[in-house]
Structures are given as structure tokens and as C-alpha cells.
Amino acid sequence: MNLLYSEIEEELRASVRDLLHDRSPIEAVLARVSADQGYDPALWRALAVELGVAGLQDPAAGGSLREVAVVLEELGRSLAPTPFLGSAVLATAALGGDERLASGERTGTLVLPFSGGAPSVRETGGRLTGRVTSVADALTADLLVVPVVGGALWVVERGFTVTPRTSLDQTRPLADVVLDDAPGQLVTEDPAVLEHALLTGAGLLASEQLGIAEWCLTTTVEYLRERRQFNRPLGSFQALKHRLADLWLEVVGARAAARAAADALASEAADAPLLVAVAASHCGTVAVRAAEECIQLHGGIGMTWEHPAHLYLKRAKADQLALGTPGHHRARLAELANLPA
Amino acid sequence: MNEADLRTRVHELLAAYPPSEVDTLDFLRARFDAGLAWVHFPLGLGGLGAPRTLQAVVDAELTAAGAPDNDPRRIGIGLGMAAPTILRYGTAEQQHRWLRPLWTGEEVWCQLFSEPGAGSDLAALATRAVPDAEGSWRVNGQKVWTSSAHTARWAILIARTDPAVPKHQGITYFVCDMTDPGVQVRPLRQLTGEAEFNEVFLTDVRIPDSDRLGAVGEGWRVAQTTLNNERVAIGGQRTPREGGLIGIVAETWRERPELRTAELHQRLLQHWVDAEVLRLTGERLRQQLAAGQPGPEGAGGKLGFARLAQQLTAFEVELLAEEGLGYDDWTLRRPELVDFNGREAGYRYLRAKGNSIEGGTSEILRNIIAERVLGLPPEPRTDKDVPWKELSR
Ligand SMILES: Cc1cc2nc3c(=O)[nH]c(=O)nc-3n(C[C@H](O)[C@H](O)[C@H](O)COP(=O)(O)OP(=O)(O)OC[C@H]3O[C@@H](n4cnc5c(N)ncnc54)[C@H](O)[C@@H]3O)c2cc1C
Question: Where is the Acyl-CoA dehydrogenase/oxidase C-terminal domain positioned along the sequence (chain B) (predicted)?
């Protein structure tokens, strides 16, 4: 098991980070949210087409899930408004790779409620009907990967409508998808494919959560080094130092857990489901705590709309519910580690 | 020195000293002399100057051959703290005298650092060392919470040699002969019932100048080597999944379905995740060290270990229900080694309370992480530039 970052992964991180720094600084994300603008198509083109991150899941093209995880760390750190998770992670995993999605020219998503749940769409004679609520990355999707009752997967490219929801997470809005006798193409009838795509998604989401937690910790440390009250920097007060030391330890743990999950998924290790359950139940909670501490330790400014901390809290909390809550993943663990109720 | 050379050396040792035929001590001495004790140590001092990561190759070969180990003294004060300090600051003569019997376990070491008035604030220590007419040192003072002082042959000791300078500057580092008539060891019973540590009274103890480690007045710097190694030694062990305390608890859970409740199940799963995350964190740190990129995670290892050990042992007592109300044995004992896993749940619960105190408290470790890892400013200090003798005590 390799828990470190390779040189190639560090290079990838640097180029993704540079690009996000230039084209999607957090102030710009905040401005988009305030103006009720959705995803940034120019940013997506730059990421997906120029840097080629949309096709990283394909080992044949030299990619690896470990690299996908690194991109997610950076997207978590920046909250860049892109459909990467839905398209390059979930839909791509369900399709076992897809040229249309890998090029970034088109995007897709997996049509299930983001908080999890069994498929409810019905298929008869190659036509799909049903309503799926709270789907992530559906608003901009050209192509839907639709799990139907029984677990088979279909692709739908027309005959559907998407209605936006007002979402807790403003940087990854959700939408309802209605399929009305929509023509589909069968991908697979094997329900294990969907299961594996969801496992992959949950395991990699831990890396996004790590990125969120890291931003919150770093930003809070920087703020407390500068901000003075009682004639000294606030960061010199031990009550605050100890909280940050504890948070640091949690983030260090989240990094080890997220890397273990990504590495296990990438190498198709036998204990991948177990390591995903560990990472998914741990990292979601760490990200929320980091965002909560970030707001609290920023004081009044942390409570304002103009400071970006709230965007991280909203993303962290939504992510904690996404693809299974920590409690759901611990219940999985009970089976995998033979710790029955 | 590569892996193949190492294996050859191991096989030569096993051929010359067949483990089933020779005495344990003879074998351990021969292993030390073959440079297979700690391969990263220099030639002649139990090592071969090889990369530290190759030790695993040696250990695996020897275990497979059923060779005796210097375990359980592996993580003791001698191996974990005294040895790296002697290696770094000792003269060639000191290294040759102390390292071999230390590694074979023939000589036990203890650490005479803490004092009644100097625990977390170790640099405030008051034990005095004064040069005598024969060019030796005379040491007077009191040390406390000294683990293994009752079995130790040698002690690492820090004492004040210059009270007129600020507290960090006037300290010198010595090796103290525990058989000196001026050393008096009194058991100090602890909450578990046993007396694992001691009070040590030092009355006109004579230490020859040749048993000093590092320069006079440089003791604080030397002690840093000891303390840094202490933090890595505690909580830095490599464990398989479900190794350590979580394994004990998980086994009980599997074997005793009648003890299970829904509430305990939730907590067990949470602890299991925490234990696995801590294991992965330690594994990642080791990989970083092996790849030559030392990370700051080391300080966190002990902090995380202490918290988890306390949560797990508390959980275990509750899980055992009526049995948890009992205790195995309150007899005052003076164990040679702490046997954390060999006793019952109540003992583990009580002993784990020491994990967040010994070797630097969790509060002090948080200060270290906050200041040295996160770069937060220190709290204002009133004692930094004041001569030690003018400080209020
Ligand atoms: C089982 C065990 C074995 C030990 N073995 C040895 C040994 O072999 N050799 C040896 O030399 N010592 C040994 N010790 C001693 C140990 O190193 C000290 O107990 C420890 O460093 C704490 O010092 P103290 O007990 O004086 O507590 P104090 O320093 O008095 O601390 C009391 C409380 O205040 C907190 N505190 C202190 N300073 C600060 C600060 N700046 N900020 C915030 N909180 C603070 C502490 O965390 C603690 O909670 C052992 C201790 C135990 C429990």
C-alpha cells in the first residue's frame, strides 16, 4: 500500500492548483454564488480539455484513480464550480470509461439521489420513466447514466427534463430529473457495476473532503497568526492552539485514510471496500468539523456572507450526506470487519 | 550493504550459532557483533551502517529461523532513548562500553529526568552537580516517577551545573551508575496498585567526568535527542490491522454476543475506524521517513495513540459489564516491564491514564504541534532570560 504522492501526482496537483488559482479564486466562486450563476463552462473547458483531468480514470490513457483523488483534493480546496464528481468520477466509473466524457467535451452524471438510495426508474422496451430527486451535477449534463429498478444501467441522451433545486451546498447545486418514456441504451445488466461505481465515488469523495478540511485548517491558522486581540496575536492563546493541534491531527488522519482508499481502489485491492468504508466515515466528519472550527475561530467575520468559510461548511455538510452518511459506512464496516450488531 | 548481503550475514550467524543449541545471551551477543542488532548503527556498534529500512529483512529472517530476540526490552528506555543519545553524543569509548549490554538486555536503563518541581517544565530542574576535588561530579537532588529504577544498572540523568544562567543553559547530561551508594530508590505505588515507577534520592552521588554526555552546560540540547526519540518510541510501533488494543476488544465482541447492545455497537465501530485511521497515519509516516521526507506527523502519533488507548480501554470495561466491575489483582508488585496486554481490562483502563502523561503530556504535545508544525506564535514567557536561581519555585 502506497500512501504517499508520486512525483507525477504532485505535478498534476501543481498544475490543477495553478489553474484554479488563476481562473477560480475563492472570491470569484463567492461572486458566482451571489449572482446565482451555476458552473463555469470556461473553467471546465480549461480543466477538462487543456489539462485533461476528465479522462484520468482510464488506465489505458495513463491515468489512475490515485490521480483522480488528487484532482478532487484540489477541487475541494478551491470549491471550483465544475461537474467533475458527477461526470469524471461517478458517470465515468459506471460506464467503465467513456470517450465522450473523457474528452471533457460533454458531461454526464449518475442519476441517483446524491444522498444515496435504490434506483426507482423503470425500463420497458428500452424506454425509461421515472423521477429522481436531488441529483448532483445534473443541470449541465448532456448524458445521463441511469440505474433502473433491478440495478441495470442505461444511458439516456434525450427525452428528459432537469429542474434545479435550492440546495444547501451552493457550489454543487442539485436538481431533479424527470424521464418520460425516454429512449435509452443499455450499458449493463450487472448490478455489481453500479455498486462498484458507488464504492469508487464514496472512496474518492474522501479526497474532496480532505481538500476542504485542509483549506479550513490552513486558513484558520493564517488568520489567527495575524488577528490581534488583548494586545497579542490570537494564535498565541493556548486554548486556540490546542484546538488547532487536534484539528491538525484529524486532518493528518484524513489524509492517510483518503490515500489508503484511493490506492486500494486504484490497485483493486481485496480490502478496498473496507478502506473505503473507513475513509468515507472518517473524512466526512473531519471536513465538517474543520469548517465549523473555521467559522467559530474567525469570530464575527466567519459568520458573514462575504467571507468564504460558509461555502466550505455547506459543501462539507452536503458531502457528509453524499453517497452514504458516516453512519451508513460504519454499518457497511460492521459486515466487512465481522463486527455484527 | 544490500538485501542479499544482509541475508548472507544472517545465514552465517545462524550457522555459527544455531538458535536451538546456544544460550540466548550468547546468541544475542553474537548477533550484535555481526552488526545485525540495529543495522543502521555504525560498524562495531551492533550495526553495518545500512539503511534503517533493511532492519525488517533481518528481523523477518531471524524470526523465521526461531532465533531469540532481545524483545521485550525492545522499546525500553535503553533502546528507545538512551541508545540514540549515546550514539549521537557519546565518545567512542562510551559507545563501546554501553551499547552492547544495553542492546542484549543485560543492562537495564532508566531515565532520571523528572523532579517533583520539574515535570512538563523539565528545564526548571534543581538537582545539582558540582565538580569535586578529584575531577568527578557530586550530584544531589531528588528525581521522581522514574520507571524501572529498581532494575536499572544505568541511568541517563540531567542536572544543573550552573544556577547563574537562564534555566535552559546551565544543565549538563550525565550517565549515572545506579549502584553508587548515594543512589536510593523507593517504590512509588501507582493507581494500578503496582509500583512500576519510583522516587530516586541522589545524595553525594559520584559521577566521573568520563560519564558525561556532551559538553558542560549543553545538557538541554542533548536531552532534546532523548525526548524526540521518546515520542517516536511511544506509539510509533508498526501494527497490522486490528493489532493492539482494538484487536482485544474486537475479539471479545465476536466471542461474546451476549454482551452486545446497539449503543455499544455504534461506539465499537467508531473506535474501529479511529484505530484503523491511526494505523494508516503511522504507516504513512513510516513511508515518508523511508522515502527521506520526514514529516511533522511524528508528534501527533503519541497524542493520537494516548487518546485512542484511553477510549478503547474505557470501552472494554463497559463492554464486559459485570466483569468490568472486578479487578484482577491489587497486590503491590514491582514489575520489570509493563505488561499492558497480559492483564485484565480494569488494569488496562487504569494504566492507559498514564499514556497522556508519560513522555510529555498531551497538552505539551499540542503546544509542540501548534508552534512547531503549524507555526503559531508562542505564549508570552516570563522565564526565558532570567537566571535560574532567581526564578520563583
Ligand atoms: C507512567 C509514568 C512513567 C513515567 N516515567 C518517567 C521516567 O521514567 N523518567 C522520568 O524522568 N519521568 C517519568 N515520568 C514523568 C513524566 O515525564 C511527567 O509526569 C510529565 O512530564 C508531566 O510532568 P508533571 O507530572 O510534573 O505534571 P505537571 O507538569 O505538573 O503538569 C500538570 C498538568 O498541567 C498541564 N500542563 C503543564 N504545563 C502546561 C503548559 N505549559 N500548558 C498547558 N498545560 C500544562 C499538564 O499537561 C498536566 O495536565 C513518568 C510519568 C508517568 C505517568
Answer: 217-374
Comparing CB atoms, the residue among A232, A242, A333 nearest residue B272 is A333
Residue B75: band (very low, low, confident or very high) from pLDDT cuts 50, 70, 90: low
State if residue B193 touches ligand 1 by the CB under 6 angstroms criterion: no
CA–CA gap between residue A279 and residue A265 (Å, rounded): 12
pLDDT tens-digit profile of A4-38? 999 999 999 999 999 999 999 999 999 999 999 98
Does the beta carbon of B197 sit less than 6 angstroms from any atom of ligand 1?
yes
Residue B1 pLDDT more than 90? no
The pTM of this model reads: 0.93
Q: What is the mean pLDDT of residues B4-12?
A: 94
Per-residue pLDDT of B314-326, as tens digits, reads 999 999 999 999 9
Q: Would you state the cell numbers that stand for residue A33, as one nine-digit string? A: 454564488
Fold assignment, A108-190: Butyryl-CoA Dehydrogenase, subunit A; domain 2 (2.40.110)
* Fold assignment, B223-374: Butyryl-CoA Dehydrogenase, subunit A; domain 3 (1.20.140)
Task: Say if domain A193-337 classifies as CATH 3.20.20.30.
Answer: no
Position B130 scores a pLDDT of 98
- Find the mean pLDDT for residues A59-88: 94
Look at domain A7-103 and name its CATH class. mainly alpha
Cell of B84: 540514540
Catalytic positions of B, please? 230
C-alpha of residue A210 to centroid of ligand 1, in Å:
34
Cα dihedral angle (A265, A271, A276, A279), rounded to 10 degrees? -110
Q: How many CB pairs under 8 A join A and B?
A: 121
Q: Best interface-test mutation with A: which of B251, B258, B366 has the largest number of A CBs within 10 A?
A: B366
Tell me the CA–centroid distance for residue A140 and ligand 1, in Å.
Answer: 59
d(CA A273, CA A266): 12
Contact A304, A231 (CB under 8 A): no
**What DSSP assignment string belongs to A205-267?**
HHHHHHHHHHHHHHHHHHHHHH-EETTEEGGG-HHHHHHHHHHHHHHHHHHHHHHHHHHHHHT
Least CA distance to A275: which residue of chain B? B276
Neighbour-count burial for B297-330, b at 16+ CB within 10 Å, e otherwise: bbbbbbbbbbbbbbbbbbbbbebbeeebeeeeee
Partners of B361 in beta bridges: none
Quote the ligand 1 centre to B119 CA distance (angstroms). Answer: 5
Residue B123 Cα to chain centre, angstroms: 19
Pairwise CA distance, residues A227 & A215, whole Å: 18
Measured CA to CA in angstroms, residue B39 lies from A45, A210, B13, B36, B45 at distances of: 54, 37, 14, 5, 9
B151 close to ligand 1 (CB < 6 Angstrom): no
CA distances, B252 to each of A89, B61, B255, B260, B268 (Å): 40, 33, 5, 10, 11
What DSSP line would sit under B181-192, residue for residue?
Answer: TTEEEEEE--TT
